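ARCHIVE CARD
CATEGORY: sequence design from structure
SOURCE FIELD: tokenized fold
FIELD CONTENT:
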């Protein structure tokens, strides 16, 4: 294995997920995390792992078999739709009434949407590296995961801070404040994603 190449693609993957141009992927991670309290990190970890598995599978499959990729315009259109759908699911589950999260359903949703995001990553990787793909694929995926972990850590910390503020400001205690937080984050991110979907519509 060429470790210099591996390191360079780890850096490339990390930069790709944390760059301003990756805002759609970052906002998907935010809206995916928005439904959870800090104390529910284990459930969140299962769902985020499902997303990781989904996009890793598609990234590997699409890079090794590029002909299987849908048209990039379709992928770019579908990515903001995954954000909107996740935001709607957040609001139905906890933004209106603080119900129990069905982890299995949520994990399946995240894995399915991970397939879409993986196709977006793969299109980028194959465009910049047409040669032997195993080491670049491994390095790029490691970089993506490191960047994703950092984004999610910041997101959970910020959401926990908002929960603390809402608990002090909103009459009705932490539950009402939490529901308002879930709804406001989901609606804001969903509105941005809707604009992107309209702008990227392939027709």
């Amino acid at each position: 294995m060429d470790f210099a190449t591996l390191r360079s693609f780890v850096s490339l993957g990390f930069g790709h997920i944390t760059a301003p141009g990756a805002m759609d992927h970052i906002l998907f991670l935010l809206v995916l995390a928005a439904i959870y309290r800090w104390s529910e990190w284990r459930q969140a970890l299962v769902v985020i792992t499902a997303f990781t598995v989904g996009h890793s599978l598609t990234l590997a499959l699409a890079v090794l078999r590029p002909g299987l990729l849908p048209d990039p315009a379709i992928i770019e259109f579908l990515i903001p739709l995954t954000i909107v759908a996740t935001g709607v699911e957040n609001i139905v589950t906890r933004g209106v009434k603080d119900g129990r999260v069905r982890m299995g359903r949520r994990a399946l949703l995240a894995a399915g949407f991970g397939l879409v995001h993986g196709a977006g990553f793969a299109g980028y990787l194959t465009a910049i590296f047409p040669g032997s793909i195993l080491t670049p694929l491994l390095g790029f995926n490691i970089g993506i995961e490191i960047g994703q972990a950092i984004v999610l850590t910041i997101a959970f910390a910020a959401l926990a801070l908002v929960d603390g503020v809402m608990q002090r400001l909103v009459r009705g205690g932490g539950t009402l404040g939490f529901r308002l937080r879930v709804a406001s984050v989901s609606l804001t991110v969903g509105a941005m994603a809707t604009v992107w979907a309209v702008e990227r519509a392939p027709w």
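CARD ANNOTATION: The CA atoms of residues 167 and 173 lie 5 Å apart. The mean pLDDT is 86.
SHELF: design records, drawer C
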